[in-house]
Design a protein that fits this description.
mainly alpha, 2 domains, 71% helix
Length: 197
């Protein structure tokens, strides 16, 4: 009897380890796809936000969910659209990011409060949490590393930060058409002002 009990705990440990490994591999693969296809990812996240908005409106119209819960959810989606404007570059200190994190907590509080008072089957509660609370923050969370591996020519209008872009092509080809001089590259900001004094 005790031998089978030990085997059951050992098998549970191995299964949890395999599930953890599978989830980690899946997240890694998703992050790689997002880094490779940032434009498509931005479009997919935009469609997910629109879908979540439609679900929230449907819940208000057909299921009579509370106005406060639906209103906060719609405002959260509006904030997500603000985050999408700078995608894949998400600044962790930006007001949009901080506000979206706070709204995720508020949405969860309102949802727990509502589902504690009103009975819904577990599958319906899980559907609400999946489509209205979890899927969009999860997409943004997985794509946080996407901005780190984007080429410099797509990050800023000046390309290499030398201020020599002509504006006719991308900054990388402009750099090779009209390369900067050595003095331009090694120019220290503020050095000219101190030499003039």
């Amino acid at each position: 009897m005790w031998f089978m009990y030990l085997l059951s705990w050992l098998s549970l440990f191995i299964q949890v380890a395999f599930i953890t490994l599978a989830v980690a591999a899946g997240l890694y693969y998703l992050a790689e796809l997002i880094e490779e296809y940032t434009v498509a990812t931005s479009r997919i996240i935009k469609y997910m936000i629109w879908f979540s908005t439609a679900v929230l409106i449907g819940l208000y119209v057909f299921e009579r969910f509370p106005t406060s819960m639906i209103g906060v959810g719609l405002f959260t989606n509006l904030v997500y659209f603000g985050l999408l404007q700078t995608f894949p570059f998400i600044m962790l200190t930006s007001p949009n990011f901080i506000l979206s994190c706070g709204l995720v907590v508020v949405n969860h509080y309102l949802a727990f409060q509502f589902f504690a008072e009103e009975y819904y089957p577990f599958s319906e509660v899980l559907a609400y949490f999946t489509f209205c609370l979890w899927i969009i923050p999860f997409a943004f969370f997985v794509s946080l590393s996407a901005g780190e591996n984007v080429l410099p020519s797509t990050m800023q209008p000046g390309g290499l930060g030398l201020g020599r872009s002509t504006g006719h092509g991308d900054s990388c080809t402009d750099f090779y058409k009209d390369p900067p001089s050595v003095t331009t590259i090694w120019k220290t900001p503020g050095l000219e002002d101190s030499q003039r004094r």
